[in-house]
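re: ur question from the group chat, yeah i did fold both. here u go
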Amino acid sequence: MLGREANGIGRRAPPVLAPASLVPGTGLPTGILFIGGVLYMVIAVVLLVAGVGLLRLRGWAWWLALLTAVGVLGWTLYGSYTSPSDTTVGNWATVAVSGAILLYLLLVRRNFRRPVAPPM
């Protein structure tokens, strides 16, 4: 019987998710998509740590957020430069948001400096 478990109880088998490469329009092998997903998860954890540090006004978090904003901005502009035919509105929105975050981080930098110890 199709769609039934082999134990004969008659329950339906749980649905199996298709590999990502079978999704129409991707055109990428499953391994590449998996590696990309893992990298995005690592970036998400780094940004979560940076966000907590920014809320606590830590200097290391400011640097981490600055490097991330510069990296995203540079990567997006590089991608738009190397293949201008693939540039979308989303790419320009990413450039705008990353640029705004970079500008904001530069404007609030003095709030993340350590206080100077009073002279003794």
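okk and heres the other one u asked abt
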Amino acid sequence: MATNKSVLSQLQSVGEDAVARIAKSPAARTALQKGNQLKDRAGKTISGLEGIEERLAAIEKRLAALEGKAKPAASRSRSTSSRSTKSSTTKSTKSTASKPRTTAGKKTS
């Protein structure tokens, strides 16, 4: 048993020395900094995705509600909706074409 403890003690001291030398190394320090930066960026990205997922779920819920309402309404008034669309586009085209642009509220230098 005494030899097992001494071997483990030796391994422990050698391991501690190796860790101490690695910690003093500038390359290892840089690698740890880069690793921490990567972890931080990944965390921000993931938290941003969680917000997007919540917004997407809300949009999907609203879409499902709108689709549920639109199906019965669309089957009842298909012929009237096409007529009203044509007349509204004709009116809007005429009204914008006949009105000239004005700059009454702007000061000119």
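fwiw on the second one: The two ends are 98 Å apart (CA to CA). The chain has three helices and no strands. idk if thats what u expected
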